[in-house]
Amino acid sequence: MKLSDLQQWRDRAVRDVSMRGERKEWRIVVSMGTSGIAAGARDVMRALMDEIERQELENVEVALTGSLGLDDFEPVLRVEHQDESVFYGRLTPEAARSIISEHVCQGRKVERFVIGLPKERE
Amino acid sequence: MDEIALHVLDIGMNAVAAGARHVVVTIVEDVEKDRLEIRVVDDGKGMDPEQVRDVLERFSSDKAQRKRPIALGLALLRQTAEKCGGGLRITSTPGRGTQVDAWMRHRDYDRPPLGNLADTLFALCLGAPEVDVQCTHQKNGTVFHFDSAQVRQALGPGVSLQSPEGVRAVRRALGSRE
Fold first, then answer.
1. Contact between B13 and A52 using a beta-carbon 8 Å cutoff
2. Prior bond of A75 cis (ω within 30°)
3. What is the pLDDT of residues A104-113, one digit of tens each?
4. What ipTM describes this predicted complex?
5. Which of B7, B53, B133, B166 is the most exposed place for a label (fewest CB within 10 A)?
6. Alpha carbon of A65 to those of B50, B86, B93, B155: distances in Å?
């Protein structure tokens, strides 16, 4: 595999992606930077996707980001729904499953894992 | 980072952050030659030589000079690789992509285990479904291959990798490894 091969694929892929893109009702952004990964973000991600699959949810989009700037609370994720963003931290796979089954499915935040918005910490 | 697979996820995330559309991971475990090789190639925005130097000298550089914590994990992997009789090399071209090569002694006492490569690929290709993630893992003549683009093609247009059906398809593709 050469870089030049990849280069050629990219233009095609960019076109493909622009044809998909639809807005889902729920968006979950998982912090998957170095500190998040070291703290267990991969297992949190797995639990999220497993639960989305188990509950047969089609209305959730999951995205990864380098860091949400909350290293002390890793693993961290943000749940976006309508105009609201909720940050969750010090997560476990079990907590991630609860976020899907309680917050996303029933609209009830998992309070014991909620952390303040970044601006509240400053 | 106590797994090679977690380092692979970290490098993969660098690629995603760099806007890559393709990430190609190759892991070769040659037990006979006592060598473990990891290669991650992406077609992201790449780095100029100065940025590459910054990434690799992360620990020795002045903290105040750091603008953003880019690719901290590469310095960690380099440290691990050197401790295990190996090294790390970054080949990058701005606008074209980056290739990271790391190698180490397979039997070194300090070498982290390979860890859960399937979970790493699961997280990467489902978390960045617009990116094609390929992985080849060779060990003693057995080869595992995964390609998220193939999974997407099999699902057909209009079915996202992140849908329940997509998640199941990815899991099936990953489950085929020994």
1. no
2. yes
3. 999 999 999 9
4. 0.90
5. B53
6. 24, 30, 23, 26
Classify residue A74 by burial, with Cβ atoms within 10 Å: 0-12, 13-18, 19+: buried
CA neighbours closer than 13 Å in the CB half-sphere of residue A114: 12
What is the distance between the alpha carbons of residues A55 and A91, in angstroms, rounded to a whole number?
20
- Residue A121: which pLDDT band, with cuts at 50, 70 and 90? very low
- The tokens for A99 are 């976020």
Q: Does A29 touch chain B (CB under 8 A)?
A: no
Burial class (CB in 10 A: 0-12, 13-18, 19+), B162: buried
Q: How far is A93 from chain B (nearest CA, A)?
A: 13
Q: Does A33 touch chain B (CB under 8 A)?
A: yes
Q: Which residue of A has its CA nearest to B72?
A: A34
Query: In this predicted model, what pLDDT tens digit does every residue of A11-34 receive, in sequence order?
Result: 666 555 544 556 789 999 999 999
What would the pLDDT profile of B10-65 be if each residue is shown by its tens digit?
999 999 999 999 999 999 999 999 999 999 999 999 999 988 988 887 655 555 45
Residue B3 has pLDDT above 80, yes or no: yes
- How far apart are the C-alpha atoms of A25 and A17, rounded to whole Å? 19
| The two structure tokens encoding residue A114 | 């909620």
Question: What is the rounded distance in angstroms from the CA atom of residue A31 to the CA atom of residue A42?
Answer: 10
- Contact criterion met (CB < 8 Å) for A7 and B97: yes
Helix, strand, coil fractions of chain B, as percent rounded to 5 = 40, 25, 35
For residue B29, what are the β-bridge partners? Answer: B36, B139
Which among A3, A37, A63 is the nearest to B41, CB-wise? A3
